[in-house]
Amino acid sequence: MAARGEFSSKFGFILAASGSAVGLGNIWGFPTQAASNGGAAFLLVYLVLAFCLAYPALMAELIIGRHAKSNAVNALRLISTNRFSYHMGTLTGFVGIITASLILSFYALVAGWMVCYFLAPIAALAGMQDVADWLTEFGLYRNVTFILIFMVLTVAIISGGVKDGIEKWSTRLMPAMLALLFLLIAYVLTLDGAMEGVKAYLLPDFSRAVDVNLIVGAMGQAFFSLSLGVGTMLIYGSYISQKENLSYLGRMVTFVDIGIAVMAGMLILPAMYVAQHNGVAIFDAAGQLISEDTLIFTVLPALFDTMGITGIFISAAFFILMSIAALTSSISMLEVPVAYAVENHQIDRKRAAQFIGLLIALISVAIAFNFEILFGLTIRVTTQMSQPLLGLMLCIFAGWIWHRNNMLQEIKAGYPDVEQSLFWKIWPSYVRYVCPVAILTVFGQVVFA
Ligand code: PHE
Fold it and tell me: Residue 209 has what pLDDT?
């Protein structure tokens, strides 16, 4: 069998894994949720949940993945201790593969819109106004075209493998994305009205912090944002060398992910208030701040329109930022089924990437055809139901099924003094008790609310 891929350095892993984590969830999901849920109150709850629950769950995936050096199906089978846990492991692995593929199928559609909105101002600048209009009007033909374009990019990168695909492109795209984000923030903060947005974002409305919906929303957001449950982080963990210190790597990825979500809030919220200052409506009829797709595809473009020629550049920069963030995430989703096909069925990586990519593109097209029914449903089932449940299963595997000594042995690899660390003292009982109970509690809210 061909040698397994491995990230060439700490840096390569951190960029690839934070590339997976940082996506539409951070730059779109987080700021808009924060905006409609009490600003900094949401931020605070999110920070607590991300560090106290999502980070330990991320560590469970990285540790299991590196130990098994294989995809989630094989990894969970490997650490199982009897027939029952073996079958549970198989099931969890497969549900993860299906979930990752379904997430990619709606993600590709949304990412395609980002690419359209990136190209539209360029087309307008080149005098092709009809093309620009086509790109920004919600049409089936356009949606399908850009699903295919985005999936071709994703497949091309995954075909290259771990070092020459995932790592190479993450190390190119992530710095570009960061630079764009900081430039945009710096620019928007100089505009009139921006400070009001900063205030709305950073002044907490604490009456909201105890709101159950807010906590449920923040938890889901944290799990989605760290790409948890579906086996993405597990497979990335399986490409980390035995020499590396996992708890450090996991911490770095968590910091980058949370940091970028928080920074994205410093872009989106001020931009909304600048839009208001320029005469664009940012509150809906019920007095709520406009969010979700209307925010991204109506309010922000309306803002860019008020800026004249500068607006064209800012708009292109903003949507290419979104497109890049989406691409470094989508490759990590496709890697989940591809790694399984390569490792368990000895299919050539390129072939596997193309075939599975095509299959997911077809599902995505089916969603585009039945948008009203399937789009919201796919998002809800995958991110609110499947992801937390899979996260729960992974914590149960790490905390209850896997032999404790083997697990501790794995943590020690690459970090000989780990026994003195806080991580060693707290984490094992954390994934055993706190994470499962917390996930179940939040999940109960989603199901029974
Ligand atoms: N973390 C990505 C985001 O924030 C989404 C994602 C989910 C990526 C699951 C991989 C797996 O947009």
Answer: 66
